[in-house]
Known about the structure:
By secondary structure, the protein is of the alpha/beta class. Helices cover about 25% and strands about 25% of the residues. The protein has helices at about 40-45, 95-100, 140-145, 145-160, 175-190, 200-210, 220-230, 245-255, 275-280, 295-305, 320-330; strands at about 1-5, 15-20, 30-40, 65-70, 85, 90, 110, 125, 130-135, 170, 190-195, 215, 235-240, 255-260, 285, 310-315, 335-340. β13, α8 and β14 form a beta-alpha-beta unit.
Amino acid sequence: MKAIFYEEHGSTDVLQYGEFPDPEIDSEEVLVDIKAGGLNHLDVWTRKGMPSPEELPHIPGSDGAGVVSEVGEDVTRFEEGDRVVVDPNLFCGKCEFCRKGETSLCVDFKMIGEHVRGVHSEQTALHEDNLIPLPEDVDFVKAASAPLVFQTAWRMLVTRADIQQNDSVLVHGASGGVGHAAVQIAANEGCEVFATASSQEKLDYASDIGADHLINYEEVDFNDEIKEMTDGRGVDVVVDHIGEATWDGSLSVAARGGTIVTCGATSGISPETNIPKVFWKQLDILGSTMGTPGEMDDVMAKVFDGTFEPHVREVLPMSEIERGHEILEGREGFGSVVVVPDSEYDPDSYE
């Protein structure tokens, strides 16, 4: 089969698209013909070795959608010809957190595409528990763009921050994968949404998907803008997946008793923290990673029924994977980037 892979860590020039050994399934696994795969910043970090996957050469890709072509003898949930979406979370099923249903806190938590080989290939072998049925009326590109970012944003806002109707929510980087999912989720819950982005085009898109207040952080200080917009109060919840570049400002704009919830740090992982801001304002700082199977089902049901609309900024053949990484690193456009096996790629279908 053809696959995206790399044999060493580094810049985009380590990425290859070529022949790779065909996967083999065991009794509880399913062979999936991948029709589309979603790119995430996770793929960029892993390519750079942060973290390093368990085995090289490594096939990246946590998000994918396709058609079942073979099932193991003990598989009960799927048959050949079924349309499926990948759930990239891997849990031990045995630790105290898994027993309590908090699988995203599993002590041996791993992710397909990060720790183990991913799904950006013509075929992939996965345990049946890592697949979700895909309705016939949802196309593969849309489905492949959604799982990681929407379940991440859902857990951040609905589970961890427990947002309520009329809460004020600031979403940093509202045009990116997690950002555009967070804007839609907060708006759907009846929150007042503040969105930051780096251009008017991105802010217009954020407005289209539910943002109430728009801030171009390249032109103004978001800290000053939000304090002015809220008469100095600040916001109830801050979604910060940026890190060093926004962290101190996030602490500043959070209202007294407010919450900052984070799932990543694309601008740097070691910001300085003004501790008096935390205790004097009695802030809650919450970490969040991915989601449980139940959370995944809940948010993907809303993607499938059209409540949430993943935006795909570009669809590329897998052989142009370097370009895909460049789009993510350069923060070009808004929404997700999706790759399609060259054998399946039809540019006229993605306009």
